[in-house]
Structures are given as C-alpha cells and as structure tokens.
C-alpha cells in the first residue's frame, strides 16, 4: 500500500511542472532531484503538486528561512514541533514488490 496522499504547495512553476510530468527536466542537477523524488513517490498512495504565487505562501517562506538560519520566528507565524514520527513507518512485510 503506501502512506496517504500528500499535497505539495510550491512557488516554482517549473518544479511543479517537472513533478507533474508536464515539463521535462533538462539540467543534470534537477534530473537527479527529480529521480530522488520519483523514488520517494512510490511510498505514497498519491501526490498532488500545486504551484501557487509566492505572495500566498509568505508565512511558509518566513518559517523556512528562520529554520534554515536558526532565527526566532515572528509572532504571527504558527507552527508545530513534532517530537516523533509524523506518520507510521511500514514494516518490511508491508513493502511493495518491485
């Protein structure tokens, strides 16, 4: 089976198109990232990618930059700290056959 569906929101139309298979990756580095994504994709029952304007993800952008730079967050940015796995892992008997 797999983990539940996942929805990815991003501000890159190019990356969203590559993941949705409507745009081909030509740059070697992007091709490597896309191959890693395809491998991870097999663990989910479905993946949806939505390209949205950067102005609509301002809080997510602030959270990402603060986390990357180990900076404090603005008061209006809400987040949750996970102290364990976000989802259950599969046992070896649950893996799909190749």
Concise synopsis of the structure shown:
The protein is an alpha+beta fold and 98 residues long. The protein has helices at 13-19, 28-41, 58-69; strands at residues 6-10, 47-51. It has a two-stranded parallel ribbon with strand order 1-2.
Task: From the structure above, extract its key features.
RNase H type-1 domain-containing protein; single chain; 2 strands; 98 residues; 10% strand; nucleic acid binding; alpha+beta; 3 helices; two-stranded parallel ribbon; RNaseH_sf
- Total beta strands: 2
Shape: globular
* Major β-sheet strand ordering: 1-2
Secondary-structure-derived class: alpha+beta
Average pLDDT, rounded to a whole number, is: 76
State the major sheet: 2 strands, parallel
Percent strand:
5-15%
- The share of residues in helices is 25-40%
- Parts with pLDDT < 50 across at least 5 consecutive residues: none
Report how far the terminal alpha carbons are from each other: 13 Å
Total individual domains: 1
> What's the alpha carbon Rg, rounded to whole Å?
16 Å
Write the H/E string, N to C. EHHEH
What's the number of helices? 3
InterPro entries: RNaseH_sf (IPR036397)
Organism: Oryza meyeriana var. granulata
GO molecular function: nucleic acid binding
Protein name: RNase H type-1 domain-containing protein
């Amino acid at each position: 089976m797999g983990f539940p569906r996942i929805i990815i929101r991003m501000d890159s139309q190019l990356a969203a198109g590559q993941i949705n298979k409507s745009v081909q990756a030509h740059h070697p580095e992007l091709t490597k990232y896309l191959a890693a994504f395809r491998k991870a994709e097999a663990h989910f029952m479905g993946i949806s990618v939505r390209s949205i304007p950067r102005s609509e993800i301002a809080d997510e952008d602030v959270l990402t930059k603060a986390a990357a730079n180990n900076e404090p967050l603005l008061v209006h940015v809400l987040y949750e700290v996970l102290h364990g796995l976000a989802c259950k892992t599969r046992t070896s008997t649950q893996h799909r056959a190749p």
